[in-house]
């Protein structure tokens, strides 16, 4: 490194000698056409060039050699180092001082520029290092969060798998014990037919619950992988709602279910089965999280932006504003994970996440607002009406 | 008058309370169910059950708070229904005063065995070494005044701390005792984090008491939680 620096300096000094020699030669070629001022300015220009190119030391050398050449070749008497006229002495010293000063100033300016450039490089380097460090830290943080999320999801999944399994295992072992007659440690009280039936019903219902949960997991995985393949066909909103309500009938028994569909709604180009699943999920939630006899209201209408708006509302305790986005996160349950105090059983925490996936796959939107009258939950979603090829409005009998 | 032992089941899973109500009733227990700690506590104060079975994760009042409230007013045996992965909260519940736990999913026989053991313990007269000088329990004979212990007729030489630890085990036989509880009871509150003391002393006790210390029958390990003492092989 040091030898490189010395070579660079030596090259500067040699350059200074070469430049001044070349300038002198060129000026001499023009001979009588060059006056003192022209020669002095030409040398001064060369000194500035040397200063700009190689810095302070070579600039001083160039100024000194330039002064000698200026004196020897251009100041009368030419060809000697003697200066006859006093004004030429002034010219000589003026040139010498001007050359050295200009050379130094130019060299300093060059040095400053180089320092500024070096500073800029250093800042750029620091910035790049900082950015890399930040990116590494962000990646580590993202990884940590992702691991935490995975662990939370795993906990949620295992809880939801284990809960029905617990009921199944407790039921089946009770039945098995009776069959095997292993009641010698207990006061022997045989199961009556109602109890036996109840155990079997629990096994049946909890098996269905496990199956629904696994189905939900598969749907979620499909949505997240972008593999939710919609089979869009022209469909009628009334039919979609009535299909969902027929399926939800066991859940809504004993409640008043009000359906309000705007007359002459256009048909929609949707995956009817998927949208019906959304309506069913919302009705299921409305039944699950509102009082036993609370009304459920389903409405559908045309909105201003060329969309169909559908909503399901209940008269439950409602969902706090800060939880209204979170309830669409998978495995989030307002009753278990949030603040809502309720005695109602919790769901799987997947229904709304799946509903959101289905609605968004249709380029629609889903959100939660306070129900009409300021009490309860209203879940609203939109669906685009379809493209230009929509068939004529179908007037079908109302529900 | 109904003489059936009364069991209160507190769980927010209606299907599980349904199964337990039917399953336990068929075994001669009088069962009532509540869906959370708050409702459970109300039923407890009105009904005075002989045993309480409770879940840990519940809305309104969770199992931990429910155990705390119960212990403030009663020594009723409490069995926790816990899931794998809930070790920390389970240990906390046992420290508060819960007697035993069953890990979900469980077979009805396992739960029934725990219920029987807890009810037996609750019915047994309290063992108080200051009031009695000798105690015979299972394979053990303890002379509190002489600080002597015999197992199956064989006298065992114990250090003072080993004796204290064994007496605590004997006085709480059948019950799950957390590391924290044992350390606080035998070494004092300043030593509750010193699990290694307990491991060393339990190891020594096993060498002196057990036929095969590698496969203990008296001092049983409850993984991640603590120990359970069984007075008979």
Observed structural traits:
heterodimer, A: 399 residues, alpha+beta, Helix Hairpins, Heat Shock Protein 90, 3 domains, five-stranded mixed sheet, two-stranded antiparallel ribbon, 10 helices, 7 strands, 60% helix, elongated, B: 233 residues, alpha/beta, Rossmann fold, Arc Repressor Mutant, subunit A, 2 domains, five-stranded parallel sheet, four-stranded antiparallel sheet, 8 helices, 41% helix
Q: Roughly how many Å is the radius of gyration of chain A?
A: 45 Å
Number of helices of chain A: 10
- For the CA atoms, what is the radius of gyration of chain B? 19 Å
- Architecture of the largest domain in chain B, CATH level 2? 3-Layer(aba) Sandwich
Estimate nothing, just give the exact number of structural domains of chain B. 2
User: How helix-rich are the residues of chain B, as a percent range?
Assistant: 40-55%
Specify which chain pair forms the largest interface.
A-B, 40 and 34 residues
Report on this structure.
The complex is a heterodimer of chains A (399) and B (233). By secondary structure, chain A is of the alpha+beta class. Chain A folds into 3 domains: 2-128, no CATH class; 156-224, Helix Hairpins, CATH 1.10.287; 233-384, Heat Shock Protein 90 (2-Layer Sandwich), CATH 3.30.565. Chain A contains 10 helices and 7 strands. Chain A has a 5-stranded mixed beta sheet. A two-stranded antiparallel sheet of chain A has the order 1-3. In chain A, a hairpin with a 6-residue loop joins strand 6 and strand 7 (377-384). Chain A is elongated. In chain A, 32% of the residues are buried. Residues 336-345 and 390-399 of chain A have low confidence and may be disordered. With 233 residues, chain B is α/β, with parallel strands linked by helices. Chain B has 2 domains: 6-123, Response regulator (Rossmann fold, 3-Layer(aba) Sandwich); 134-229, Orthogonal Bundle (Arc Repressor Mutant, subunit A). A 5-stranded parallel beta sheet of chain B has the order 2-1-3-4-5, sandwiched between helices. In chain B, strands 6-7-8-9 form a 4-stranded antiparallel beta sheet, covered by helices on one side. Chain B has a 3-stranded antiparallel beta sheet with strand order 10-12-11. In chain B, a hairpin with a 2-residue loop joins strand 8 (148-151) and strand 9 (154-156). In chain B, helix 3 (63-73) packs parallel to helix 4 and helix 6 crosses helix 8. The longest helix of chain B has 16 residues, at 108-123. Chain B is globular. The mean pLDDT of chain B is 88. Chain A binds chain B through residues 155, 158-159, 162-171, 173-174, 177-178, 182-183, 185-191, 195, 198-199, 202, 205-206, 209, 335-336, 341-343, 345-346, and chain B through 12-16, 18-20, 22-23, 25-28, 35-36, 39, 57, 59-60, 81, 83-85, 104-109, 111-113, 116.
């Amino acid at each position: 490194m040091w030898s490189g620096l010395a070579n660079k300096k030596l090259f500067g000094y040699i350059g200074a000698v070469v430049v001044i020699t070349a300038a002198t030669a060129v000026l001499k070629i023009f001979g009588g056409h060059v006056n003192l001022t022209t020669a002095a300015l030409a040398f001064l220009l060369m000194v500035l060039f040397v200063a700009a190119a190689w810095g302070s030391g070579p600039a001083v050398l160039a100024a000194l050699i330039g002064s000698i050449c200026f004196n020897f070749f251009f100041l009368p008497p030419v060809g000697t180092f003697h200066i006859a006229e006093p004004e030429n002495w002034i010219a000589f010293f003026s040139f010498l001082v001007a050359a050295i000063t200009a050379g130094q100033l130019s060299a300093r300016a060059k040095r400053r520029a180089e320092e500024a450039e070096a500073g800029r490089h250093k800042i750029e380097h620091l910035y790049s290092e900082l950015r890399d460090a930040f990116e590494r830290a962000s990646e580590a943080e993202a990884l940590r969060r992702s691991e935490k999320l995975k662990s939370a999801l795993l906990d949620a999944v295992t809880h939801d798998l284990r809960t029905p399994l617990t009921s199944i295992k407790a039921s089946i072992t009770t039945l098995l014990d009776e069959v095997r007659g292993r009641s010698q440690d207990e006061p022997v009280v045989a199961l009556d037919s109602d109890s036996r039936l109840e155990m079997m019903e629990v096994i049946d219902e909890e098996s269905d619950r496990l199956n629904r949960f696994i189905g939900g997991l598969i749907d979620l995985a499909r949505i997240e992988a972008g593999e939710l393949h919609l089979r869009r066909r022209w469909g009628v909103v009334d039919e979609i709602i009535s299909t969902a309500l027929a399926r939800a009938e066991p859940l809504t028994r004993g409640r008043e279910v009000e359906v309000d569909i705007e007359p002459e709604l256009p048909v929609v180009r949707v995956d009817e089965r998927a949208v019906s699943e959304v309506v069913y999920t919302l009705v299921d939630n409305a039944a699950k999280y509102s009082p036993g006899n609370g009304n459920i209201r389903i409405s559908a209408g045309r909105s201003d932006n060329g969309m169909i708006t559908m909503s399901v509302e209940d008269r439950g305790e409602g969902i706090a504003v800060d939880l209204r986005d979170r309830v669409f996160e998978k495995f989030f349950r307002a009753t278990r994970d949030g603040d809502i105090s309720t005695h109602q059983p919790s769901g799987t925490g997947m229904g709304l996440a799946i509903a959101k996936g289905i609605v968004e796959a249709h380029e629609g939107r889903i959100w939660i607002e306070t129900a009409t009258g300021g009490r309860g939950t209203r879940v609203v979603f939109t669906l685009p009406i379809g493209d230009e090829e929509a068939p004529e409005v179908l007037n079908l009998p109302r529900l | 008058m109904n003489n059936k032992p009364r069991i209160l089941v507190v769980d927010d899973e209606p299907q599980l309370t349904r199964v337990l109500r039917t399953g336990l009733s068929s075994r001669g227990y009088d069962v009532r169910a509540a869906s959370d700690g708050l409702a459970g506590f109300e039923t407890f104060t009105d009904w005075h059950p002989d045993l309480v079975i409770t879940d840990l994760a519940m809305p309104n009042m969770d199992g931990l708070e429910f155990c705390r409230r119960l212990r403030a007013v009663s020594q009723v045996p409490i069995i926790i229904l816990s899931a794998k992965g809930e070790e920390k909260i389970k240990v906390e519940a046992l420290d508060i005063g819960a007697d035993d736990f069953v890990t979900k999913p469980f077979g009805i026989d396992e739960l029934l065995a725990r219920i029987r053991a807890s009810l037996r313990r609750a019915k047994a007269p309290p063992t108080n070494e200051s009031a009695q000088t000798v105690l015979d329990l299972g394979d053990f004979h303890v002379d509190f005044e002489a600080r002597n212990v015999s197992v199956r007729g064989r006298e065992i030489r114990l250090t003072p701390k080993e004796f204290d630890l064994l007496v605590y085990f004997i006085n709480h036989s059948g019950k799950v005792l957390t590391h924290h509880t044992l350390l606080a009871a035998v070494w004092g509150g300043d030593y509750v984090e010193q699990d290694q003391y307990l491991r060393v002393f339990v190891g020594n006790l096993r060498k002196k008491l057990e036929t095969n210390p590698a496969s203990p029958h008296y001092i049983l390990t409850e993984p991640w939680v603590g120990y359970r003492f069984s007075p008979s092989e």
